[in-house]
Automatic annotation (TrEMBL):
Residues 28-87 form the 4-oxalocrotonate tautomerase-like domain. GO terms for molecular function: isomerase activity. Transmembrane segments: none annotated. Belongs to the 4-oxalocrotonate tautomerase family. The active site is at P28. It is an enzyme of class 5 (isomerase). Keywords: Isomerase. NCBIfam families: taut. This is Tautomerase. The keyword NAD does not apply. Pfam families: Tautomerase. It comes from Castellaniella ginsengisoli. Its EC number is 5.3.2.-.
Amino acid sequence: MPPRRVSRCADRRVFYSSFFHSGDRTMPYVNIKITREGATVEQKARLIEGATQLLVDVLGKNPKTTFVVIEEVDTDNWGIAGEPVTAIRARAKASAGG
């Protein structure tokens, strides 16, 4: 138990040290929500890289202090126009003859 706490504290010190000495006091946070339908690890890595680079290019943010979180949501929990995506997709599949 104690070594684990020491490790976390050491990680925080390294992060906060680089953050406070970077000159940029903001920590951008990007939350990307997608449906859980098979985005690959590589695709998610590209989203993280792209969102980070966008903040660097447009706002001049420090990539070392930029957080990107990808949340994958089940289609049962994602709705469009008052209807779950699961139902929309099932109806589209049925009308396409599949």
